[in-house]
Automatic annotation (TrEMBL):
Family: Belongs to the RuvA family.
The protein, known as: Holliday junction branch migration complex subunit RuvA
Chain's gene name: ruvA
Pfam families reported in the protein's UniProt record: HHH_5 (PF14520), RuvA_C (PF07499), RuvA_N (PF01330)
Keyword annotations of the record: ATP-binding, Cytoplasm, DNA damage, DNA recombination, DNA repair, DNA-binding, Helicase, Hydrolase, Nucleotide-binding
GO MF term (any one): four-way junction DNA binding
Amino acid sequence: MIGKLSGRLDWRGSDQVLIDVRGVGYIVHVNDRTLAGLPSVGEAVSLYTDLLVREDLLQLFGFPTMLDKEWHKLLTTVQGVGAKAAMAIMGTLGADGVARALTLGDQRAIQAAPGVGPKLAQRVILELKSKAPGIMAMGANLAVAAEADDSVLEPIVPMAPRKMVAASAAQARAGFTADALSALLNLGYGQGEAAQAVSTIVAEQPEADTAALIRASLKLLAPKAR
């Protein structure tokens, strides 16, 4: 499986690009949003990829982030949504837009993608609304990981085993809470209402992970959906 390509951009088409990786050229299909964000021909480029395998066809689809790739893969699990339709939806809405449309049940937003009719848009909403928090949690975790890579490590202070377990659990809960809050803010909720919803769920479900917190908070915020 080819999960990522890094090389030189050799050619740009209307919906695909050619990436030279150490002398081997790969044709990668991209959506409008991804294409617009790519560098000029001859410059370095890196894309996460998903390989579509058929009896008579091998196609690579490229994405600027791992989160975009995961949303694309989730969209293709819906019957009737092939790679082309999923790329159209991602190209129209982007990762945040897809997350917002699914969680708020915005069928019109999904239908705005070229080639996606009302019946298919409705099916996407119905089948993926409950699965969206899982991908949103993944996105929050990826953002935290990226921030951690840029942070300065502090000296490690020895700690007693029991205190280590308690501290680890507390850190995990704090991480879940922060990630859930970040996901809600990305959906357009205000800081105050998002924080209140998450804190309410944390009090009711202290063992909930990020995805569970997001799912429960969205239910709590549902009457306030825009």
